[in-house]
């Protein structure tokens, strides 16, 4: 029973944490930077292993967060130098991720980490990787990391809510009233990096990307109010995790893959049946 509980809790925390952080990227039309960061943190994780010889705890968090911020910085530098935004993301994303894959091959058999693990994660093994203090188990490390990332995200959004909202919808006015746009930009990149790092080792890059982008995009179909989109994104992420776990047990398939699939299904339902702009609702209203 506890084994199942920890897996479901981890999935829900991933959906909630990534959903909230990713919704801000969706609103700022920066969704694909989430894809880039969710892959390039692999380089930071491997780099942290070379320094600390461990994939757990603070070294991994620091290494992956540094590379996540480096990704955002390099994309911005290339973009300001005249490279198109999507091309800049593609160049940085593929280069740093490929470097991480190369470094994995150098690690060899020293640690259980490979490209398949990086893409799909090992959420079924989360209950066994516990936080031990003086011989006492205090639950899975993934749950603690995700809980920390969620609390940090909520605190940062609460503290800088007005600045984030203003810089998202009217950056020119925000500049005039003294909102530090660069600081807010890297604050959001830090939130995304923390969310990605906390999720990556457990669920892999594919589910991280899905939870960072799809719940926010789905919420934006249902509401255009800033706070509502943020809250809805977290709720949709949790629902997708719950449905995905049930689907994976029913068909005996990948848990992370099922959760990612459910985000797409929820988006499709919102796209078709959204009361305001749903495709089918529009056609029905036009017909009648």
Description of the molecule:
This protein has 12 helices and 2 strands, in the order H-H-H-H-H-E-E-H-H-H-H-H-H-H. The protein is mainly alpha-helical and 288 residues long. The chain has one domain (2-204): Orthogonal Bundle (ABC transporter involved in vitamin B12 uptake, BtuC). The protein has helices at residues 2-27, 31-52, 58-80, 85-107, 115-120, 141-159, 161-169, 171-176, 181-222, 226-251, 255-273, 279-287, and strands at residues 130-133, 136-140. Strands 1-2 form a two-stranded antiparallel ribbon. The model has no long low-confidence stretch (mean pLDDT 83). Helix 3 crosses helix 9 (181-222). It is found in: Cell membrane. InterPro entries: ABC_BtuC-like (IPR037294), ABC_TroCD (IPR001626).
At a glance:
By secondary structure, this protein is mainly alpha-helical. Helix content is 80%, strand content 3%.
Q: Any idea what the radius of gyration is?
A: 19 Å
Share of residues in strands: under 5%
The 3D shape can be described as: globular
Please list the strands of the largest sheet in the order they lie side by side: 1-2
Instruction: Could you tell me the CATH topology label.
Output: ABC transporter involved in vitamin B12 uptake, BtuC
Structural class category: mainly alpha
- By CATH reckoning, the class would read Mainly Alpha
Largest sheet: 2 strands, antiparallel
Count of extended strands:
2
Subcellular location: Cell membrane
Pfam families: ABC-3
Family: Belongs to the ABC-3 integral membrane protein family.
Membrane topology: Multi-pass membrane protein
């Amino acid at each position: 029973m506890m084994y199942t509980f920890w897996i479901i809790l981890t999935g829900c925390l991933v959906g909630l944490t990534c959903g909230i952080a990713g919704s801000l990227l969706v609103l700022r039309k920066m969704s694909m930077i989430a894809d880039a960061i969710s892959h390039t943190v692999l380089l930071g994780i491997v780099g942290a292993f070379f320094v600390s010889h461990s994939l757990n705890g603070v070294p991994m968090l620091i290494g992956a967060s540094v590379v996540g911020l480096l990704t955002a910085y390099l994309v911005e530098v290339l973009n300001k130098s005249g490279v198109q935004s999507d091309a800049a993301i593609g160049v940085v994303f593929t280069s740093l991720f490929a470097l991480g894959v190369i470094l994995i091959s150098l690690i060899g058999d020293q640690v259980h980490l490979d490209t398949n693990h990086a893409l799909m994660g090992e959420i079924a093994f989360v209950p066994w990787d516990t936080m031990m203090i003086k011989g006492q188990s205090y639950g899975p490390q993934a749950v603690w990391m995700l809980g920390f990332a969620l609390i940090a995200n909520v605190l940062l959004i609460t503290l800088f809510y007005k600045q984030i909202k203003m810089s998202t919808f009217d950056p020119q006015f925000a500049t005039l009233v003294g909102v530090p746009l660069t600081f807010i930009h890297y604050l959001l990149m830090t939130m995304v990096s923390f969310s990605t790092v906390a999720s990556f080792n457990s669920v892999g890059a594919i589910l991280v990307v899905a939870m960072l982008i799809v719940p926010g995009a789905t919420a934006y179909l249902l509401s255009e109010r800033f706070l509502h989109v943020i809250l809805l994104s977290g709720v949709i992420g949790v629902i997708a995790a719950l449905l995905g776990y049930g689907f994976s047990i029913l068909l005996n398939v990948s848990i992370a893959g099922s959760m990612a699939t459910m985000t797409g299904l929820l988006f499709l339902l919102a796209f078709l049946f959204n009361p305001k702009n749903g495709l089918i609702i529009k056609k029905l209203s036009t017909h009648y």
